[in-house]
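Tutorial sheet, problem 5. The two components below are modelled jointly, 621 residues in total.
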Amino acid sequence: MSGPVTLPAPALVNRESGVRTDHVVVADMVAAGARVLDVGSGDGALLELLATTRGCDARGIELSREGVNAGVARGLAVVQGDADVDLAHYPDDAFDYVILSQTLQATRRPRWVLEQMLRIGRHAIVSFPNFGHWRSRVDLLLHGRMPVTENMPLAWYETPNIHFCTIRDFVDLVEVMGARMEKAVALDSSGHPVRFNLPWSVWNLLGEQAVFLLTRKD
Amino acid sequence: MEPLVEVAAPLEAAEDARARREADTPHSPVVRFGPEAPLKLDAGVLLPGLQIAYQTYGEPNAARSNAVLVCHALTGDQHVASVNPVTGKPGWWETLVGPGKPIDTERFFVICSNVLGGCMGTTGPASRNPATGSAYGLDMPLVTIRDMVNAQAMLLDHLGIDELLCVAGGSMGGMQVLQWAASYPDRVRSALPIATAARHSAQNIAFHEVGRQAVMADPEWHGGHYLQHGVTPHRGLAVARMAAHITYMSDQALHRKFGRRLQNRELPTFGFDADFQVESYLRYQGESFVQRFDPNSYLYVTRAMDYFDLAADYDGVLANAFRGSKTRFCLVSFTSDWLFPTQDSRTVVHALNASGASVSFAEIDSDKGHDAFLLDEPELTAIARGFLDSAAKAAGLPAVRTR
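Model answer (structure tokens):
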């Protein structure tokens, strides 16, 4: 049913359920029955997961026409729009959670987008590829090249990702913005959460992706 | 594609009579409301003896929860999925409405009525005025989109339908969909407004005014009393239709269809014959239109669109029209539609977001202009199907039958 959809980063899929592991981590952070806005909802897979497994009132914004049309054809509430512009049109506290899954690095104004998310929703869930992962560092250090990995498969001149950051960079931004960090999960290269409670510097090395649950400080 | 004709054919008396007949005794069911149930119009007057002509397809279920109302555009009618009795052509939205189609007549009870002010059996300027026994003409009060919707609500009451699974329509039909959602939020579970706007733009009012002036400039209009004179201002109406038809297409579509190709000739005639195919096509569109549409009705219905400004009834804030709405919305626009451009739909989407309503919005890549909503657009079909399916699921209707 769904047409070809370019995702910012291909992610690991659970072989049995066909569900992306980072989606499962995100969905676990959402309270059942919550009102959720997924910014950059792609083909609607996460929206569908939230609606079916968590009973959420889940809605999406997606930039690509193919993604929107695929999502709407699946019966999901998806609006064609640009996160960098259209978030301004949502009222305060319209949602319980606003999710930005693998999209932060593709926005023109990441900080503005995060601020809008915490205005529209009480909680924000953000997942992104970690540029501080050891493999990215090795690529730069040994080869002197921008990393191209399984999760970031496009060359620098083709990727929609224009604002890469590391886990530590993101933690700094959260502090500057004055948001509260409720949960943080680093995913290793096989897409599983890094289990141990480790210092940021280690997560920053081992986490290929990171998922953060933020809450607005009132 | 429409056949291309060389010369404007003279208005055929038989077809004219057939079109005229439809105004009072149409080839479709009608409901006539007595003098005790007048329609209160926005113009501030009561319209007694309202007649509504409609078509239905499919059957209501036991809970009467599967009704879908289709609202037609400016020159459409109630014959959405069945042969038109005047033109003999298929229903105007058979791309979306019919057995197994997204608006599935085997699953849903589909209702479509001729709009108030129309000329296919619902009270309009060509209808007989019960007070005088002859056609209303300009004695018919001006009507609005909201009046059209209120008339449809009377029809639904008559049919015993409290709640609509979906209200769907494009262009002026989409305006009615938005008005339905604003006026009767508790009766509308889902709304599918396509290629439309919450208010008619200055440019669109301007185009309509050109059309009306063309009708009124025809000496056979006779100040609106042409029926009493036994004539019809068909030349003026044809010009109005020609001008309007250009706005329904895109530059690319016109170029693709006709380019600068000549009509059945090798060289230009150095005269004002229809040398170009595009001229011949427009003349054909104009001439075939006047055989099925009442000129005064064209004035009334275009005026209703001009007056449409949904936010104006809600302190100028469109979001207020949908405040607290439980209706699920799905809006669709087309990239090459310059009559109701994507920005018009986006304005509605932003208002719905601001009001917290559930909304989907897709812009479909098409070079067919405004007309795209009436044509076979696979993405529109897929979106409408997905939206209707999810609306049916949310309403607890059984899953779609496998065909």
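Marking note: Chain A touches chain B at residues 1, 57, 59, 65, 68-69, 71-81, 86, 89-91, 94 (CB under 8 Å). Full credit if you identified this.
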